Amino acid sequence: AKGLLLSAIQDENPVIFVEHKLLYRTKGHVPEEMYTIPLSQSNVVREGQHLTVVATSVMVRRALEAADILAQEGIEIEIIDPRTLMPLDEKPIVESVKKTGKAMVIHEAVKTGGYGGEIVSRIVESDAFGYLEAPVRRLAGLDIPIPYNRTLEANTVPQVQNIVDEARKLVKGDY
Fold first, then answer.
1. Longest dimension (CA), the chain
2. Inter-axis angle of helices 58-71 and 160-172, to 10 degrees?
């Protein structure tokens, strides 16, 4: 996040920088020196061969947890974090889908009108379309306001088990 935030500050154009509250307590190494990450560069977070998963923010963390569970079953998912939605670096997404033949887009936003629909459109409008072995799956929040209560919230946005279940279906051809 630090490198992206510094890039956003330095950019001459208006930038909307969205931080997820659940990531505030995340621990990990952050270099002390100044560094930037290009605003238009996707990150392949984990490589895999059976399914391409596109996710951002806290959904990347959940996808990584799901990937660990699926790996125990021999299912290797590739996780791509676009980092920025505009401009969207779709090349790594397209190349990954061409490799795996299957794709799932995960986002916390509501399904209707959420950015996941745009990413799905980019996949099916690209030359990856001919490589698809299954419909592109979109796992998103329910089309309702997110409740304040944590238990209710957990039932409205994708959780690790939802990702595991949908990934299994896609990989096994049960869609």
1. 48
2. 50
